[in-house]
Amino acid sequence: MAQELYLIRVKGHLGQQWNEWFDGFTITNVEHGEAIISGINVDQSALHSVLMKVRDLGLPLLGVSRTEEHENERQKSLPGD
Hints:
The chain is of the alpha+beta class. It has two helices and four strands. It has a single domain (about 1-75), classed as 2-Layer Sandwich (Alpha-Beta Plaits). It has a four-stranded antiparallel beta sheet with strand order 2-3-1-4, with helices on one face. The protein is globular and about 30 Å long.
């Protein structure tokens, strides 16, 4: 079954202690001092909430993308794994 996956790329690494603050999103630190904050099947309100938190932390936003993919393909889309 296809699911919507949102990927928010920011400049800077985040510690795992921030996972709870991002309300169900997952943090993955990748190369070049970047992090990807990802969430599956989130509504627009939750997405905007995470983007405001990125702003509040002062993290430069590098990109936001949405894809539809199967659960077993999720790990392939996260760079650095």
